[in-house]
Design brief:
- With about 475 residues, this protein is α/β, with parallel strands linked by helices.
- About 35% of the residues lie in helices and about 25% in strands.
- Strands 6-4-3-1-8 form a five-stranded mixed sheet, covered by helices on one side. Strands 16-14-13-9-18 form a five-stranded mixed sheet.
């Protein structure tokens, strides 16, 4: 560097450089003063923005019955009895004079692909908003309804019987919910306060993936304990916190919204329809609070089940329900209310999740046309072919959040691993992120990048429709909507 300046230069040129340097220093000083003035103006401005008007927040609450009739298909059988009715519940949220936001939680096992499109389109039309402001989730009850009109077409194409879809029931149920959304939109209530609290759920969630010393899945802990070894193994990575948000008109609560990450099933598979221990806990809380609407969302519970604490007997369902209900009550009792914050906003972004290498069209079609493959294999192949067709058709997935000051209601797709909701929470230290996953279920399980190298159930062929690179895409999207 030294040689670069002095070589071949006269003293006068050195002087010129000195003068230039002085000039630059003066310039920098002037610029610094200028910057200080600008910062000062900004501070004054931001102080004045502190006194900006509070947003006008209103909310309509809806609920509609979505119980299938006897004889109609649910995920693993035909409906033979109704243990507990299924519902779709949610909120139509009005922020100032923006188009409303619709959040909806449905007691079904999955709403995927064109099923998700129809739900969002109908609800958007009913609320007079756009579909990118509508978020429809399932609670994932296993004796619950599957809704995927793309898969429905594929099963018809290959004449797979019995099909998983009762189209007339599905369209009627969606229309009922849309009608309820329409009615709620006409009669929103003023929100003056937002409440928040959380409580630990004891002895419900456990991680399905029990890793061995080599870092690979050594044992799979199914939703009902299959053996003493998996039940004895530690809980593993979970998020034990049940988060509870409430909306108020002064002293009067309007609705309670809770979040907790776990698969909800205690036992299932015979067509005895139930909203399961999660829905039972929610319904009991609603009764205890004199009918105060309670909406529950499943968190990122893709790799979480009650397997450690559930032997699959009928007796365990009400016990698990009581444990969840206890946390719901504790969180409600500890609720801290604040006047509605100034930063209220809806944010969304659309992503393309990279396709899993295991999803090969020819392979799926050959399973569907092969007389020797089982019904379950055909259903599974149709499910993944539907997802494949959507990705090839360029359909993107919505990731969104509703910001209420330091409280974020985050909406994510698929059977998402709990690691994602823990990561989302870590992105906002000192704030609260409530994650609702199980929106668009087309991708199936969405693991973390490393989980695809560890084996186990979720990331195996035909269970996950996405590649390990999805982690990067999703984390980026989460970061974007949490800003
Ligand atoms: Zn699942």
């Amino acid at each position: 560097m030294k040689g670069f300046i002095s070589a071949g230069r006269s003293i006068s040129s050195h002087l010129k450089i000195r003068k230039m340097c002085k000039h630059i220093r003066i310039n920098i000083k002037i610029k610094s003063i200028f910057s200080l003035v600008i910062i000062g103006i900004c501070l004054v401005y931001s102080n004045s923005s502190l006194s900006q008007p509070t947003p006008h927040l209103r909310v309509g609450v809806f609920e509609a019955d979505v119980t299938p009739p006897i004889g109609s298909p649910v995920a693993y059988a035909m409906t033979r009895s109704i243990q507990d009715p299924l519902s779709a519940r949610g909120l139509v949220i009005f922020i100032d004079d923006q188009k409303p936001v619709v959040l909806c939680a449905v007691d079904w096992i999955g709403i995927s692909n064109e099923g998700n499109d129809v739900w969002r389109e109908k609800l958007a039309a009913a609320a007079r908003t756009t579909i990118n402001r509508v978020s429809v989730h399932v609670l994932h009850q296993h004796d619950g309804v599957v809704c995927d009109f793309t898969m429905d077409k594929i099963l018809k194409e290959y004449n797979v019987q019995p099909t998983q879809f009762d189209d007339s029931f599905l369209y009627k149920a969606i229309q009922n919910v849309a009608d309820a959304v329409g009615a709620a939109s006409l009669n929103p209530q003023e929100v003056t306060h937002v409440g928040f609290s959380e409580a630990k759920v004891e002895k419900v969630a456990s991680n399905r993936r029990i890793l061995g010393k080599d870092g690979k899945v050594a044992m799979i802990r199914w939703s009902s304990g299959n053996d003493s070894a998996t039940m004895a193994a530690p809980e593993g990575l979970i998020d034990p916190w049940l988060k509870c948000v409430s909306l108020w008109n002064n002293e009067k609560p309007i609705a309670v919204i809770t979040y907790y990450a776990t698969h909800p099933q205690s036992y299932y598979g015979k067509g005895d329809v139930t909203c399961e221990f999660i829905g039972i806990a929610r319904n009991n809380r609603e009764k205890s609070l004199g009918g105060l609407p309670h909406i529950h969302f499943n968190g990122a519970g893709g790799d979480i089940t009650a397997g450690k604490y559930n032997d699959g007997s009928e007796a365990l369902r009400p016990i698990l329900a009581k444990r969840v209900e206890a946390a719901m009550q504790q969180a409600w009792d500890q609720t801290k209310k604040i006047a509605i914050p100034k930063n209220i906003a809806w944010k969304n972004t659309e992503v393309t999740l990279p396709l899993g290498k295991n999803i090969v069209e020819e392979k799926l079609r050959s399973i569907l046309s092969d007389k020797n493959t089982s019904h379950a294999e055909k259903i599974s192949a149709a499910e993944k072919l539907a997802w494949y067709q959507r990705l090839k058709g360029g359909v993107k997935i919505n990731v969104s959040s509703l910001r209420l000051g330091k409280l974020w209601l985050l909406n994510l797709p698929g059977e998402l691993f709990v690691e994602y909701q823990l990561a989302a929470q870590q992105m906002k230290p000192g704030e609260e992120v409530c994650t609702a996953a199980y929106e668009e279920l087309g991708p199936g399980y969405i693991g973390t990048a490393i989980s695809y190298t560890q084996g186990g159930y979720e990331t195996s062929d035909l269970n996950s429709g996405v590649a390990p690179e999805s982690e990067k895409v999703l984390l980026k999207a989460i970061k974007k909507v949490l800003q």
